[in-house]
Amino acid sequence: MSDDIKTSYKIGQDNITPFGLDIHNPVFLISGLSIVAFVLITLMFQEGAAAFFGWLRPAITSTFDWFFLSAANIFVLFGILLVVTPLGKVRLGPGCHPGFQLYRLVCHVVCCRYGDWSDVLRGIGTYFPFRVFHGRRGRGGQWRTD
Q: How does pLDDT run across 38-83, given as a tens digit for each residue?
């Protein structure tokens, strides 16, 4: 870009490097102390924390269930929008190309358990009454659904 701002600031110039780690000092200090304080308070007041979290989870899931479902639907619709409109062909920079071929990307996704073919087949199995989609063969050829 020709409108870049000229500055003497270098990215990471304020970072510290203890034990070879590159740490942004204020961010790490605040987040680290917050996590330690939260864990210590939870451990010191276990009964109160158990009661609070026992109340919090159902309260969040029953109050904001519409938000979770709406967010998931928006993400899916956005993905479909990118597929069916010309926006899916927009490149983020010059010479941008996928880092992997499609079959390699699918292998990475499946091997990292982001997706699982058996889950896909179980999903298909809900529409077809074939027993082969509902479980795996255990010892002795018996079907199991765990």
A: 999 999 999 999 999 999 999 998 898 889 889 989 988 998 898 8
For the chain, how many structural domains are there in total?
A: 2
The DSSP bridge pattern shows strands 143-144 and 136-137 to be antiparallel
Q: Is the pTM of this model over 0.70?
A: no
> Structure tokens of 97?
């190309």
Tokens of 78: 């956005």
Q: What is the domain extent for residue 55?
A: 16-89
Q: Cβ distance 110 to 116 under 8 Å?
A: yes
* DSSP bridge pairs for 16: 23
Contact in structure between 137 and 143 (CB atoms under 8 Å): yes
- Give the separation between CA 83 and CA 20, rounded to whole angstroms: 43
User: Is residue 1 situated within a structural domain?
Assistant: no
The verdict on 53 and 85 lying in the same domain is yes
> Are 81 and 24 part of one and the same domain?
yes
Q: What DSSP designation does 113 have? A: T
